[in-house]
Fold each of these.
Amino acid sequence: MVEFTLNDEQLALRDLAHDFAEKEIRPVAWQYDRDSTFPAELIKKAWGLGLMNYHVPERFGGAGIGYLDGVVIDEELSWGCSGISSSIGCNSLAVAPLLLAGSEELKRRYVERLTAEPLLASFCLTEPDAGSDVAAMKTRAVRNKDKYVITGSKCFITNGGYATFYTVYAKTDLDAGHRGISCFVVPRDAGVIVDKHEDKMGQRASNTATVTFPEVEVPLDHRIGGENDGFKIAMATLDRTRPNIAAMATGVARAAFEFAVQYAQERVQFGVPIAMHQAIQFMIADMATEIEAARLLVWKSAVQLDHGERNTLLSSHAKRFAGDVAMKVATDAVQVYGGYGFIKDYPVEKLMRDAKIMQLYEGTAQIQRIVIARELFAPRV
Ligand code: COS
């Protein structure tokens, strides 16, 4: 049977996340965007409520909730503000490789720290010359007796400036392309340098940094999974986290849609609220349909994970579609506001800027189409 309804626990999680978004995130979201304020206090509160690290199994101090539960939370938090929600949600991306392939000892030592204290971790994959083309990375990890020496630089790292540890991808075999990458956990105090805080178009409350590893040494047991298994660990991680980005995109779209509906009922032109004009109605109708469709893909891609199935195709469907929907709906919301939509005093201008990243991070809309086409023409099992 196909179920499109949430159970009581999921409804309670949704209410908890919505309440937090409405009462804690929304009141500061536009100010934090303007000032590019990192939401440290909100992160602590979200941690206290269990809205962070929620997939971490109970034996490591987490709630161990499912993937559908997670995307329901993320849509609500991003309805509040996707910059703040990126900051709150980033730990899930950082620990996914550890949960997937890390040793019990590494999980105890690192994952458990995040559930014991409101600390942050970051996922370090992207480099200046290796964004979509992961295998082109230059960061390398050289084995030296009982240590790996990691040298290189990673860019666009969410929470990079505030992380206590990093999950880092580096070449362990320079000649083996994607088969020569390994994944490591690197504590910040091993000598990691945070170089730069990016001044971004949107999601300005989130911290995006360059993180450099100048011959940073980690013990051999800090490798996550087998040597040279890193590329597959990265891909499997993204399969698990792209539904969350798609959920966040749906939350941004829903926020823009709600503002547009409200404004269309208040704004009078030609003697009637503009909601009475068919041109506006059609835009609003399309927004509503697209948001519903995005959410269905998000839920389906998450439920597939809850069933223990590989979700590469659905994860990319959801990420591609919901990202494009967020951009279109937010742009149309600005259109409904007319000239006022272009002014920072009105809420939709921020949402349009925030929406853009949904088509970029965790794999661009074009990369998602590549994944979809490959899965269709040559499905992997
Ligand atoms: N799960 C497990 N393994 C996977 C996988 C997945 N989802 N996708 C690919 N693989 C495996 C393949 O099976 C292949 O294995 P073999 O070595 O046994 O042949 C290997 O990984 C290489 O796959 P592929 O040939 O598809 O690799 P490409 O270098 O062509 O890269 C893309 C594929 C472009 C899809 C990948 O590099 C990608 O997703 N890039 C975007 C990265 C990204 O999202 N960056 C954002 C920053 S992270 S926040």
Amino acid sequence: MIALDKPPLRDLARLRVFIRSMADLVEREQDEATLLNQGSELLSELISHDDWLPDAYAQPSPVRYRQYLLYADVRQKFSVVSFVWGPGQETPIHNHTVWGLIGQLRGKEVTQPFVLNEKGLPMLQGKPITMRAGDVSAVSPTIGDLHAVRNASASEVAISIHVYGGNIGTLQRSAISKTGEKKMFVSGYSNASIPNLWDAP
Ligand code: FE
């Protein structure tokens, strides 16, 4: 057999277990609050260890934050993405249109929730929340779907693992400027292929 020259993979067992559990959860649970609660526990377990994310999906770009697809459910019921932030990088104010769970794997991020007022202008909703390694938060059209996120550090990379109730890179959603202008976007993904979960080391 010819040995393929490819970079060593980290052990993806933790990610495999997480994805299997999430697939079971989205299959059986219709209630969003329960799904977010139980999904938070699963994500919390996944990010309590920082030894599984392959380096290829942890690379920052000097230009803008990256979104690497780790897994998309075949029926598009959920997707898992690693968000990699270079120092000081930030998102515009944006929505998701589906539920989302955010688990901090490495570094620190700050998320600021917003709501639109009657004129369509984004207003701060509460204080900014600092996410530290091990923290999990949630967004959804039901509980609040609008926020802006930034790397809390001007010198370190930050990485969070996101789970969404759809194939997030393919969904039409919006970014809102401070003056209320809405811009539709589809985020896509920074990688062209997904890791092969079954390629166990
Ligand atoms: Fe977001």
